[in-house]
Amino acid sequence: MSSWRDVFPLLEKHMGEWEGEYVHLDPDGREIDRHKSHLRMWEPEDGSCDVIQVNTYTWPDRQEQYQFNGVLRGRDIHFDNDRIVGYMNQWDSQTIILTWTYKSLLKPGNYLYELIQLSKDGQQKVRTWHWMEDDRLVRRTVIRERKIA
Fold first, then answer.
1. How far apart are CA 82 and CA 109, in angstroms?
2. pTM for this model (two decimals)
């Protein structure tokens, strides 16, 4: 049985804490939301899953926090919790591809597709989401993050 380090070595560089900003855009590029983010990813010592990521989103008037436990199946890390279902895999030495759906949107043609690009020095990453409904683009999200720990 292989570990995620054998089939997904790029994930090691994503471990730690990241701060950034999410900017949500409509299909025409108009801003519809912007908020700060703090992400923390680690490998749990208890072996309950392969990785855990906790995302904290902050707006001027509120804060939301979500935990995503990932389990290795083959070459992919799978997520399935109350909020989302999906998986991610390593595309090349700097790129992760992730696809998922929010369970509240769970119907054919509704999904998100994400590209995560890590800088060569491992200190910056950019992410883009494509939000699809009935296989049509309804939103894009652009995220910039920097590693803080």
1. 20
2. 0.92
